[in-house]
Design brief:
The complex is a heterodimer of chains A (about 140) and B (about 450). Chain A has one domain. In chain A, the strands form 2 sheets. In chain A, strands 7-6-5-8-9 form a 5-stranded antiparallel beta sheet. A 3-stranded antiparallel beta sheet of chain A has the order 3-2-4. Chain A has 1 helix and 9 strands, in the order βαββββββββ. Chain A is mainly beta and about 140 residues long. By secondary structure, chain B is an alpha/beta fold. Chain B has a domain of about 180 residues: Peroxisomal Thiolase, Chain A, domain 1. In chain B, the strands form 2 sheets. Chain B has a 9-stranded mixed beta sheet, with helices on both faces. A two-stranded antiparallel ribbon of chain B has the order 6-7. The mean pLDDT of chain B is about 95. Classes of the chains: A mainly beta (about 140), B alpha/beta (about 450). The interface between A and B is large, with 49 and 48 residues.
Chain lengths: ~140, ~450
């Protein structure tokens, strides 16, 4: 499914640069051992400004899902209905990312199944973004 | 653009252990004014969000039975939509300046609630000294005004929220969703094209899996919401679409983001509400019976990811219940009704369970959809959302607060049968909520 291309900014450039190298990174606070994504200027837990980027395994589990029948995003309308699933990262299940679960038909999403990250190229700018597929 | 101070963080009651609220029973809501409603703005100045706001203010003052010159404070929620809006520099439509005086922000009164715009267009408000913005939600304005009155910063305060709804669809194909690139914080979730209700629907799905419930069990709640809303002569449905819906309608509703269907999404409208909040002493001289505030409380996001989790919603709505009961000095069994937020319908049960409303001593979670199968009507033992909420009246996030005030004043159009001594209202989502306990008595 062709998605919109994200435009990186100063704060999230390390994340999108890593995506282009097919590595998944999220922010990590060494002071309180807390992961977070989306990125912020400081730790959302202890407000430490010394937040770092840390590569994670790229493994997670499907936490939940919806089937989208009425998307607001124009470029996705031709692909309706489609899955949007929440993915809980292996390193920290409270870190949630979204996925279309490419290859998984709607109404057949295996809740709780293991997934692994893949990187999808978005057409407008060529920026890569993380996607997730079920590990068979 | 003129702006006024936001609610100070130090006013928030966002943790346990704060004890009874210092303003308990010393602050009350009295006059209530509601504008007419419309589905969308027709671009005439006299039907604008600002015009509706002025109507609501004048009605609230008249309802309170006071002089406009007695108003010495305004708290407003400046945001007037969660959907599409004009660019801030968009000039007003032709003829606007012949109806309204202008301020330096061209969208004031159109897509933004603005204290200065109100004051220049309501010269009868001659004594307003205290001005503050309760950002994001009218709930924030209510809790802000309650604190301001309790702290002696204003004695007779208008609490105001207007909503605009422009032509076109609320989100679909609008703004950033229309392009082939996406910038700003919305890119972290927006690329996947999930509609606004999807985040709630995903957590609802987890809730159902955890507790063995299903979407069909929502039907009695949805039907009751519309029934209660149709009793309200000021609501959108009673004014424009006075048709009841059935369980079958709900079960066959078209999916938006399954398991959220069209009836789980509230209908965007144009409307405005104004409420007078004052001291308990002054309230005795206002025409309506006082609706006393026993406490207020806030939750704010703790999420580490792009969406909240089921665990965070349960944790934070539990915390909200405990903070409210501690601040008011009451318990769950003291609540005669609940008017927590419902837009989207699929998260209402988190609020309800956090308050242990209708739990009959049940300590745990996962009972709300079973409660929906019982008598949750205004004549039953556990009146759930007697206002009808957003779902029964249109999207404003204020019907619930308005009705809680009217309930404890004994004059709600959907008045519950049992005595409405103490009730609760709060908006919006479980991880981002301002709530108040209302009472017919200051004690």
């Amino acid at each position: 499914m062709p998605k919109q291309s994200p435009i990186p900014d100063e704060l999230d450039k390390p994340f999108y640069d890593a995506c282009n190298e097919e590595r998944l990174v999220v922010q990590y606070c060494p002071a309180c051992s807390r992961y977070q994504f989306p990125p912020r200027n400081a730790c959302g837990g202890c407000l430490n400004p010394g937040i770092q980027w840390k590569q994670v395994s790229g493994r997670g589990r499907i936490q939940s899902r919806v089937v989208v029948y009425d998307t607001p995003v124009s470029v996705l309308i031709p692909d309706q209905p489609f899955n949007v699933a929440t993915i809980a990262l292996e390193e920290e299940p409270e870190i949630i990312m979204l996925s279309h679960l490419p290859g998984t038909p709607v109404e057949q999403v295996p809740i709780g199944a293991q997934v692994e990250v893949i990187f999808e190229t978005t057409p407008a700018t060529g920026q890569k973004i993380p996607e997730w597929r079920v590990v068979s | 653009m003129a702006s006024h101070p936001m609610t100070p963080n130090s006013w928030h009651r966002n943790r346990e252990g704060l004890g009874i609220w210092h303003g308990r029973g010393k602050v009350a809501a009295t006059g209530v004014g509601t504008s007419p409603t419309a589905r969308r703005w027709d671009e005439k100045p006299e039907t604008s969000m600002g015009a509706l706001t002025l109507i609501a203010i004048r009605k609230a003052i008249e309802d309170a039975g006071i002089s406009p010159s007695e108003i010495d404070g305004i708290v407003i929620t400046p945001e007037s939509t969660t959907g599409v809006s004009n660019d801030p520099n968009t000039p007003p439509p032709e003829g606007w300046d012949q109806v309204f005086k202008m301020v330096d922000y061209p969208q004031a009164g159109i897509t933004r609630g603005d204290i200065d715009w109100i004051l220049v267009n309501m010269p009868e408000l001659t004594n307003v000294q205290f001005k503050m913005e309760g950002r994001g939600c009218m709930s924030v304005s209510f809790t802000t005004a309650a604190e301001a009155v309790a702290r002696g910063l204003t004695h007779t305060c208008l609490v105001i929220r207007g909503w605009h709804n422009l032509a076109g669809r609320y989100y679909v194909g609008q703004g950033a969703a229309a392009g082939d690139t996406l910038a700003g914080p919305q890119k972290y979730a927006g690329l996947w094209g999930a509609p606004a209700c999807a985040g709630t629907a995903m957590i609802f799905e987890e809730y159902c899996n955890k507790y063995g419930k299903n979407h069909d069990m929502m039907a009695p709640f949805i039907v009751e919401q519309r029934k209660n809303g149709l009793m309200n002569p000021d609501g959108f449905y009673s004014q424009h679409r006075p048709e009841m819906i059935t369980v079958e309608d709900y079960l066959s509703g078209r999916w938006i983001a399954k398991p959220a269907n069209i009836y789980d999404n509230d209908l965007p409208i144009q409307a405005a509400l104004a409420v007078i909040m004052t001291t308990a002493e002054r309230a005795k001289n206002h025409r309506p019976k006082p609706a006393y505030v026993l406490t207020h409380a806030q939750t704010r996001p703790e999420s580490q990811g792009v969406t909240p989790t089921l665990e965070s919603w349960e944790r934070l709505s539990d915390k909200m219940g405990r903070m409210l009961f501690e601040g008011a000095g009451i318990g769950p069994d003291d609540l005669d009704f609940e008017n927590m937020y419902d837009g989207f319908t699929l998260f209402h049960q988190f609020h309800l369970e956090g308050l242990r409303f209708g739990a009959n001593g049940e300590k745990g979670r996962g009972y709300a959809l079973d409660l929906y199968q019982e008598d949750i009507s205004i004549t039953g033992p556990n009146p759930v959302s007697p206002s009808g909420g957003n779902n029964g009246n249109g999207r404003t996030r204020f019907w619930n607060h308005r009705d809680s005030i009217l309930q404890v004043q004994g004059r709600s159009p959907s008045q519950i049968s049992k005595p409405a001594n103490i009730g609760v209202s709060g908006s919006h989502m479980p991880h981002m909520c301002d709530s108040l306990i209302w009472s017919s008595s200051p004690d």
